[in-house]
């Protein structure tokens, strides 16, 4: 059951697409509400209650015991106690005696204190008086999440190639660099579907341009790569460089498409290209205009994109030079190193006629950029597109996926990737993943192999790293055949992974879940955070520690233990309970639930060679409902077929 409450005059975020009438009752169940300059919602947690949700936030799958700030932020120094990341996903589920979910629908800042002082108090402090609150009640945490996914609309559906392996690096500068990456993967027999182009492909980091010296014939290059089954995925940043003569800039100025400052002129903020203006994505006409700009790329054969710097990230502004100290009085308290005050210096015109500072509606900016591009790509292309963004708000999952930003090459961040996946799924973001191998810092061979073994199971599987870090492509490491083995598993599993993704998306369900959702009565499974369910058949228990040869795995029921190595799949039936499992770096171990099947395909070098229906079956089940299609057609119904084990 879902009850909707409305306070003040909420900004329509479009997160919820189902029409739910506002409740006539003042009284909210589960929370007590205290009005004031900050609006507080509080409740008491039971001793054993688990709190799920909050999407892209740090710490575990159970959010209990810490404070989280919903205020999209570009902080590349990811740490366990970092209060905000790039996305605002204000949905949580309290899993106790009477489980319930709550979605605080406002683009303003919220502080979630989930029993940080161990007093049992969960408090939600909203800086605005204007918001919708949805309370969802149900029998179980999983049931509540499914109700929530039902009202926020279907996930974006990427093409099949977006489920392949992607290679990226901030630092590929020229066509030659990209060609080399492709050739090296081919040489090493490592499957690959796309290569990302970071800001260096542009002319001086200006969106919707190409540096002609570095990429003399982008359309031709794109076509040649496509013949080999490879795609290019360029980055697009939020800010448009101030440069009269650039048609996008001129048009934006002429039509008043940019955000304005206190003086009523276009706000200036420094990002990669120098001083830029920010498109005011809050206006329908601006979204349409910005989305149409992608024709620059689609006209050259490109169908995949990553949107960045859209929190928005700001280095300095016309009001603040780079060295300005944080202004505590203006609210820089929670992110002391950063300059929250900037967001009070520019304004949006909402479609409902109101004007708001970015600070007041901050968390929607990136989501609206995703919407602008997604809707644009939908107009421009007669096939599905790949799109993932750094910043997001619930609702943006209908237009694109997300990646979790500038993590680092550390074991802690690998673990965080595992924790993020179910939490993001609960908030609608099925197509997501982290920078495999880590963005900041230097990745080791061991860390990359373990990380790849996790990313094999996440819809977005992209190796990405920063400029100035050590090379992180698989072929840079010794015994490259080990990397080939691990990445190849992804391709063998694609008939299953694609099918499970599409079924979850089309049915508005989760793909990646905590064990507790599938084994609600199992007290031990309820507390496990480093094992995950992937689709209906698979459980993973990845190795997340440096220097170890295996790990302890908990099986809530008897399962098939599948060991993938150079020799192929080796299956063994194992009983319920704890077992110590050895997992050498060049093997991946995963589990298939009793009575379930996993269809695995043939070994291929990219998805263009893949036949989703040419499969063999692993596991003890007799039937598997497989989703398959051509991989790019837009209007996907549930194209199902049932694959059966031969007698
Ligand atoms: C941001 C992005 C990162 C990208 C870099 C350069 O830090 O998060 O992925 O490589 O900008 O564009």
Structural overview:
The protein is α+β, with helices and mostly antiparallel strands and 647 residues long. Among the domains are: 2-152, Immunoglobulin-like; 502-644, Immunoglobulin-like, CATH 2.60.40.4040. 22% of the residues lie in helices and 26% in strands. The chain contains 13 helices and 39 strands. A nine-stranded parallel sheet has the order 25-24-22-18-14-13-12-27-26. β2 and β3 (39-44) form a beta hairpin. α5 crosses α8 and α9 packs parallel to α10. The longest helix is centred in the C-terminal third of the chain and has 27 residues, at 480-506. It is globular. The model is unreliable at 328-337 (pLDDT under 50). Bound molecules: alpha-D-glucopyranose.
What level of helicity do the residues show? 10-25%
- Alpha-beta classification: alpha+beta
Q: Give the averaged pLDDT, no decimals.
A: 95
Nearest-angstrom radius of gyration? 24 Å
Strands of the widest sheet, in order across it, are 25-24-22-18-14-13-12-27-26
The level 1 CATH classification of the domain at 2-152 is Mainly Beta
Classified in CATH, the superfamily of the domain at 2-152 is glycosyl hydrolase (family 31)
Unreliable stretches: 328-337
Count the E strands. 39
CATH topology group of the domain at 2-152: Immunoglobulin-like
CATH architecture of the domain at 2-152: Sandwich
Quaternary form: single chain
